[in-house]
Structure prediction request, 712 residues.
Amino acid sequence: MLRPRYTLLTALFALLPLGTAGAQNVDSLLAAMTLEEKLGQLNLLSAGGNASPEQTVLVRRGLVGGLFNVLGTENTRAVDRVATTESRLKIPLLFGLDVIHGFRTIFPIPLAEAGAFDPELAEATARAAGREAAAAGINWTFAPMVDIARDPRWGRIAEGSGEDPYLASLLAAARVRGFQESILATAKHFAAYGAAEAGRDYNTADVSQRTLREVYLPPFKAAVDAGAATLMSAFNDIGGVPASGNAWLTDTVLRREWGFRGMVVSDWTSIAELIPHGVAASRAEAGRRALTAGVDMDMESRIYVDSLPALVRANRISLAVVDRAVRRVLRAKARMAQLRPVAPNAVEIRALARRAARESIVLLKNEGGLLPLAPAVPAIAVIGPLADNRLDPLGPWHTDGRPEDVVTVLQGIKSRVSSGTQVLYAQGAGIEDTSTAGFADAVAAARGAKVAILVLGERHDMSGEAASRSSLGLPGVQQQLLEAVAATGTPVVLVLMNGRPLILEWAVEHVPAIVEAWFLGVESGNATADVLFGDVDPSGRLPVTFPRALGQIPLYYNHRNTGRPPAAEKYTSKYIDVPVTPRYPFGYGLSYTTFAYRDLKLGAARIGPRDTLTVSVTVTNTGTREGTEVVQLYVRDEVASVARPVRELKGFRRVTLKPGEARTVELRLAARDLAFYGLDMRPVVEPGTFRVFVGSNSAEGLEATFTLAGPP
Ligand code: BGC
Prediction:
């Protein structure tokens, strides 16, 4: 155990438990505060590495509640000391940071990790990241990002868990639990930030209340139920009401319906942005709207601290609204003071990074069993701008991650092949370059080898915030590089590093093997080599749909049917120039072995509204190698008062089977898992017939039906 960092806390805070006594302490503290000190607690400022002299003065005067982007234990200690010994009330600071997928040890981006379909893994990586961050003085992360995303143009799709609310909810809860062992978590961005129109970051989201409640809100609810200390309000508006000034969201739904007792922080200047949104004419009005809506802490707008004192004095905002927010911030600090961060173990964390990276890799294509490669292959070409690249595998938001910690694919391969194997490396081109000058070397390397591994994709900052793309092909001349290398006739394995689904049509037609390696973090190269050489079976599955064409977007598996489902006839819902189906569906991913499903059995043909149905299926490894399958359970409500999605994920299980081994997998489906929002917008479980699908992905599987009876 680390010595708790909070030895400098005032007696008041050191004694703050979360219960009644804590509430009393918060109340007595509140009673002692001036209006300026209260609003100071609501002020959150970015420090750019270290607190500036101006920020230090504000801290001393009690006009700052938290700082973020203070890096290094010495820096956090120094400014915390100012708060806890030199300010009048000696209230400690919150130290926030975007610890998204690792602090120093960078794990796969969250989208990649979602593909592991492994909440226990997500909890473990969040826990490790929390430990590392806490050891550097951080006590609050702005993660997990739990926004559902159905549009791969949106760069922030990389930071979340993909398109499915069920998987995303399990991972949201797991990450909250993991982080909150050592630091406070923030579920963000509340809400519907991922629904940005046209995938353009910060854009308006126009989602129905039903879709909001059924698709975008569940991961937040799961985070709240898992005890998330804080939520962050989003930049976007929903149907004209900006999320950072939306009382329905941050008060009615979050606090009244869900019973959230924690604190809401705005996103970066999202309170000031109520002005350009067009819902506030002045900073004061923006501040009043946000605070009244339930946004307690003001990140970087400095509106609460600057503009609200005059409003309170003029009785234009009640002191009770201010006190409510201050109480929530103080309660979060009381919680922070109770954390007992655990010391990180570097060796264990590094091993976890390798496991997470391995589990996140998705094998998309493997014609003729080209993979796994034999380590004794005489010559292997490793080509591409991402093959020996130490920066980009870190992905967006890599916090304290360092390129020197990254094992590249080239290094991973070199350390795995037999001593006699020649590894021929050529960069070929840059990620976004227009020059083809390096092609000749790449072609020569491929010609001299038995197999060519092409590592292509995006730069780390082509996804993440403000990184929307209008095309989803390989950037720069990488497509031409791929074609030039493929033209040599040497079999090509395309390894992709990217933060979003790409459109891969040419590769799918011409390249025998495709490996989706996302941005896997520090163990990127080792994990990729582990999979390429078959030391582990690829067990990642797509947490998001891969389209065939840009014009299909948004494309997601859990869509509703139309009155004219796609069929051969002309007047049905489809395109005239591209199939209606995705290139790779949600849940898809190959293994080096094959699995057969049989004997899908339901525990009952009919269940009551309080029952749980047992769904069992026998999965057999029909290949010659050990492999891991992700068994997926989907449901369709055939007839309901409101049209239901064609399929919804309701359960999954990772199973590892030896060649020839068969296992009966049991999944459980509770009647309440079939609830949706009815015509009156209340949750309802309607009786009727449900179809169950169990299989390898969202587009296939064995089927059965059962009936849900109405109340007796
Ligand atoms: C992002 C947030 C992030 C914050 C602080 C904003 O621009 O939208 O996700 O937590 O900055 O860095």
